[in-house]
TrEMBL record, chain A:
The keyword Membrane applies. One of its GO terms (biological process) is tricarboxylic acid cycle. This is Succinate dehydrogenase cytochrome b-556 subunit. Belongs to the cytochrome b560 family. It holds the Pfam family Sdh_cyt.
From TrEMBL, chain B:
Keywords: Heme, Iron, Membrane, Metal-binding, Transmembrane, Transmembrane helix. Its main location: membrane. The chain crosses the membrane at residues 50-73, 93-113, 133-152. This is Succinate dehydrogenase. InterPro entries: SQR/QFR_C/D, SuccDH_FuR_B_TM-su. Gene3D superfamilies: Fumarate reductase/succinate dehydrogenase, transmembrane subunit. The keyword Disulfide bond does not apply. GO terms for molecular function: metal ion binding. CDD domains: SQR_TypeA_SdhD_like (cd03500). GO terms for cellular component: membrane. Pfam families: Sdh_cyt. It comes from Streptomyces termitum. It is found in: Membrane.
Length: 126, 157
């Protein structure tokens, strides 16, 4: 552990940890995503072949995870901006975090069917 | 009070300072003086900090809009293929959208990773190599993505 750090625990630290982890994950995903999209310059077949592997249930689950990471990072990023620029931001940072978590849970529940419905139909028939 | 010998601070009130015997002047620790170099390191870190916030606001619209179109509407990923890409990049609007998203997300993410490297890589050499790798991958990805958007050919065959 780096010397002289100030890990204070509680909402402030854990939201920062989650923001950092999701940010790094999204960056690595973006790198791969630009590479796969670049296949449209190779041939339509090469592109469609790779995208076909994205339509499998396992990748659908990964996509749900990606949506989870991006939604948290985006919502919490707006909270960080509010803490920095809104004069009452620091005072309400905790309430804003729970608002972020609440909106995130609702959006994740709403994403279940659109993102995973296709995979569920493939796995369980009909 | 002033005769309290156990105080670590010592007497303050009623000290022997007055107009003829003023307290010594102590300069503020970070005051700019005549000997401070004119240019220190510039404002790069402040610009980077501001960029993270400005790009973040724009990315909310670009990225969430992108997800909505690609993963949620019209059957989600199942509709995506070469023909779908060709349909979208036929419009300059979506070309600009994707170009802006690519540049902002890559620069935002790369700057974020630079912060992470600075935080955890303790040896100067490790930092140098990790950042070299990061900047190489970032420039490569931005250039490749830009090239693909600008040179996309729907009639590639
Ligand atoms: C969707 C909209 C987004 C918003 C509102 C947003 C907001 C932010 C903000 C405000 C910060 C600075 C946090 C701080 O200084 O403490 C940040 C950091 C970061 N972001 Fe984003 N971001 C977004 C999208 C992205 C994307 C697409 C990526 C990946 C390519 C990404 C990767 C990162 C990384 C790696 C960090 C550094 C984390 C750290 O230093 O702990 N972000 N984000």
């Amino acid at each position: 552990m780096p010397a002289g750090t100030l890990y204070r625990g509680r909402e402030g630290m854990w939201s920062w940890v989650a923001h950092r982890v999701t940010g790094v994950l999204i960056f690595f995903f973006l790198f791969v995503h630009v590479l796969d999209t670049a296949l449209v310059r190779v041939s339509p077949e090469a592109y469609d072949e790779v995208v076909a592997t994205y339509k499998t249930p396992i990748v659908a689950l990964l996509e749900y995870g990606l949506v989870a990471a991006i939604l948290f990072h985006a919502l919490n990023g707006l909270r960080v901006i509010a803490v920095d620029f809104w004069s009452k931001g620091p005072r309400y940072q905790k309430q804003m975090l729970w608002t972020v978590v609440g909106i995130w849970v609702v959006l994740m529940a709403g994403s279940l069917y659109p993102v995973l419905g296709h995979a569920a139909r493939e796995l369980f028939g009909s | 009070m002033s005769s309290d010998t156990t105080s670590a601070i010592g007497p303050v009130e009623g000290a022997a300072y007055d107009v003829d015997n003023p307290a010594p002047y102590i300069e503020p620790p970070r005051k700019r003086t005549g000997r401070t170099p004119k240019s220190t390191r510039g404002n790069f870190e402040m610009a980077a900090w501001l960029f993270m916030r400005l790009s973040g606001v724009v990315l909310v619209v670009l990225v969430l809009g992108h997800l909505l179109i690609q993963l949620f509407l019209d059957g989600g990923v199942s509709k995506i293929g070469f023909a779908f890409v060709a349909g979208r990049w036929a419009s300059p609007f979506w070309q600009v959208w994707d170009l802006l998203m690519l540049w902002l997300a890559m620069l935002h993410g790369a700057n974020g990773l630079r912060t992470v490297i600075n935080d955890y890589a303790e040896r100067a050499n490790t930092r140098l190599w990790l950042k070299g790798l990061l900047y190489t991958a970032t420039v490569f990805t931005i250039l490749l993505g830009t090239l693909v958007i600008f040179t996309f050919d729907p009639n590639i065959r």
